[in-house]
Amino acid sequence: MNTILVLLIILAFMLAIDIYFFQAIKTIVADSSQVTRRVTTISYWLFSFILSAGIVYVFLMNDRHGLGRVIILVAFGTVISKIIGILFLLFDDIRRGVVWLVDNVFYRGDAKITETISKVTEEGEGISRNEFLAKSAIISSLAPIAAMGFGILSGAHDYRVRKKVITLPNLPKGFDGLRIAQISDIHSGSFFNKTAVEGGVEMLLDEKPDVVFFTGDLVNEDSNEVKDYTEIFMQVKAPLGVFSTLGNHDYGDYKRWPNEKAKAANLQKLFDAHKYMGWELLNNENRILKEGGDQLAIIGVENWGLGFKKAGDLKKALIGTEESATKLLLSHDPTHWDAEVRPMSDVDVMFAGHTHGFQLGIEIGDFRWSPAQYRYKQWADLYEENGQYLYVNRGYGYIGYPGRIGMPPEITIIELKRA
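-> structure tokens emitted (419 positions)
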């Protein structure tokens, strides 16, 4: 879709929300002085105008960092908060509509009926229902702002180690007990706390994994984003190596480049970053690990996802793995599992990321909920189908909203056991 058209749609949407939410503001200050009402109105619409101007700046200047990131965050938080507040206003408008229908359509202006409905729906003890709902709208709109603030300050780098054991009947004896650490979706361009990022790396190393997998999205859109973090991530090491693959954000597809040559150079710099950190990048290829006479294949494909880039070539990546009893696949997008991996291969375990668990959710015991589940069939944790497994990592970093609410960043430790 044309960039200008998208911008106009966003601005129109924000304006519609502003107009509707302003009902609550007017109701709250209705009994205030004229000066208070005027100052409130000017302040409300001045803030909305400045925010809209900021969105125009982000789009036209293609700024997703620094000032642009702050503008996006403020706009996102403001819109979400107002939408939640609007739910209360909508309830009041529906109530008003019911009153109007009953009065003007069903009972055609019957005075007694109208008076009864008004008493039931309009008047309360002390304050009117209109004022109560308007205040509720204002208060409820503050809740998501508080939650988002907590998610930034406390949730963004609240790394959790999640451990799983996968039992495979065909696992060679030499690899029985293999400990795999997985991280995914670093999104280094979003980080704002180097100390916390390094703390997560230390947590991973404390688990003493035999091998480490990184399943894509090292950056948001530009390879330069990782420059300040290569010294941190090059600390990630394991006896059998660190293997990585690409995610949809790594290709530079979300940034406007002056030409294809510049875009290709950016991708090459990303390859160089993986090499500098000591991470072996697998682009539709594999590596065979040997332990005595036993073999295990580690396979990596480029990004392949429904609705996203399909650069992955699984057939090519599998060439040479025929003699390996166990096959482990690194593929960024979990939709690849149902679309290609299970139907056309004997891959034992696929490791993916991509969803971030939407950076928002609830996980209590075996109960898990996130908006991510309405887009992805497999969106977090371990899945099994006919003896094949998929693990979807919730992500190490974040993008867009620089925080997490109920869906902390993850370091996965998977132990393979022989049946």
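Residues 174 and 291 are 5 Å apart (CA to CA).
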